[in-house]
Write a structure and sequence with these properties.
Structural class: mainly alpha
Order of helices and strands: HHHHHHHHHHHHHHHHHHHHHH
Oligomer: single chain
Number of helices: 22
Number of strands: 0
Length: 420
Amino acid sequence: MPLEDGFGLPLTTPSATARDAYVEGVGCLLSAQPGAETALRRALAADEGCALAHAALARVHQSHARAAAARTAIAAAARLTAGLTARERGHVHALERVVMGDAPGALAAIRAHLGAWPRDLLVMAPCTGVFGLFGFSGRAGREQALDAFLAEHAAACGDDPWFLAWRAFAQCEAGRPAAARAGLERSFAARPDNANAAHVRAHLDYECGHDAAGRAWLRGWCHDYPGEATLHGHLHWHLALWALEAGNLALAWELYDTRVRPGAAWGPPLNLLTDAASLLLRAEWAGLGRPLPHWQAVADCARTHYPQPGVAFADVHAALAFAMTGARDDLARLRDGARGPAADLVAALAQAFEAYVDGDHAAVLARLLPCMDTHERLGGSRAQRDLLEQMVRVARRASGQPSSGAHPRGRPLPAWLGAS
């Protein structure tokens, strides 16, 4: 009888040890728990010819911006596809397109593959979240597009806890909190250790204005979440953001200094860069000043991990760090070299941040306001992009212009950013 993976799909390997380790590794990867790489290497030690273990390892490397290692691993998987089932060949091909950065080809391959094997969730995963193929597509309406994409697979996957969490995030970002809450509860009932589901809960509570309850729940959930886990730093960014908005500046700074900043946090470089930059700017508005050494560390993180423009969400936060540290040459290089479907937004926001540092609030508004209806094209979540909404409010207040007292989505405003 052929062995199966964790989703009931055939897995070509003669080794039950390799199969078990592969299932464990994929489970850790999909739930943002530590141990994915260790388990997948154990699978390969038991069966070096397990193509899907190589492909999953490639995704682990990619999630941590280890591009060369990811390409090596996916190439190993591709060399092993002869003799595999059609499902496994399609699995490797789709993930190869993802790892090689071919976003249109990856999305086409994933759609075709899921049409035949909708429960192959490791292939679906690159489409999900706010950093996935939809999130970084640069498209207007991409939140609704991802929600619709996942709805297509609900009949086949709607009992799976990982799918339920991913779909809940899409529903939350698309403005459907009640549906998101219902699915998320089912996800947690089946897999309470899923850090991706905990992350969705943080976003859902933020969007619904359940700040105190969300903060208390997430603090309790994070108590046993390992420091080396993928989302450890980012979940503490959520806690720091809530602390900041509640006026607990000491706690917000403690969380930043011990759990979020580059050098203290461990996690994907995209989270390190964007979490640190966005929290530092909010902290400045809350009255914590502008600590130049911390901004320098964020700028160095940007130079190290994103030396060339091309990932709009990273580029915008790099631009902010360069502006705050006076790195005008880096800022000009990023502004003028912006590329990709959201390059126009990157260039405009780079100019807005430079104007902010210069104290030219009229120029800040001139650059920011045309971006406000379409900033979803940058990628990232609504909670993260609230930074732009808040900068508009700060610039209006500084220039003596009236500003509405309401948040555009109805959530409470922090006390330090009330109506002018």
